[in-house]
Amino acid sequence: MNTRADMFHPLARALHWLMAILILSMLFIGAGMVASVSERHETLIRIHKPLGIAILILAILRIAIRLRHRPPPLPADLPLWQKIAAYGSHLLLYALMVAMPLIGWAMVSASGEPVMLSASLRLPSILSANPVAFAWLRAAHGYLAYLLFLTVVVHVSAALYHGLIRRDGVLRSMTGPARPDTSG
């Protein structure tokens, strides 16, 4: 499959948008879990765990694809501080997409509860039961969720800046090529 040099690889684009939906869903589900003490809490947890593992697997796949298919270069006229911010924010996003599910997995393991993805699919514990570790990991998971939310907001803002103000092709490199004008 040929890929244009100014575009992300098609699989990278597909994974980006799928993961955007999953991560936003996960942030809302997590907020609902924190705010709920009703029976909905258990339902949200049953959704949250397998979704987290799916995000972990997809993040690892995305990293592999990114290493195999380099992203298009940023515009040459982009100020250095914006290039550094772009690379740093992407690195932070990838780190959080891997760290958040691993911390959640470790947190459930440290709680002493089985790490169940469904009624019959159980993950191995990656930590022994430890209430102190559980409390620390729970706090870390929550703080990192806020950091992930903030990073997503900055990422979307930067994409809109590139697409609506600079119009430099950065947003289009992830959304796909512009459709040709067929009106005339």
UniProtKB/TrEMBL annotation:
Residues 8-176 form the Cytochrome b561 bacterial/Ni-hydrogenase domain. One of its GO terms (cellular component) is plasma membrane. Pfam families: Ni_hydr_CYTB. The chain crosses the membrane at residues 14-35, 47-65, 85-108, 120-137, 143-164. It is a multi-pass membrane protein. Keywords: Cell membrane, Electron transport, Heme, Iron, Membrane, Metal-binding, Transmembrane, Transmembrane helix, Transport. Its cofactor is heme b. It comes from the Bacteria. GO terms for molecular function: electron transfer activity; heme binding; metal ion binding. InterPro entries: Cyt_b561_bac/Ni-Hgenase (IPR011577), Cytochrome_b561_oxidase (IPR052168), Di-haem_cyt_TM (IPR016174). It is found in: Cell membrane. GO terms for biological process: respiratory electron transport chain. Belongs to the cytochrome b561 family. This is Cytochrome b561. The lineage of its organism: Bacteria, Pseudomonadati, Pseudomonadota, Gammaproteobacteria, Lysobacterales.
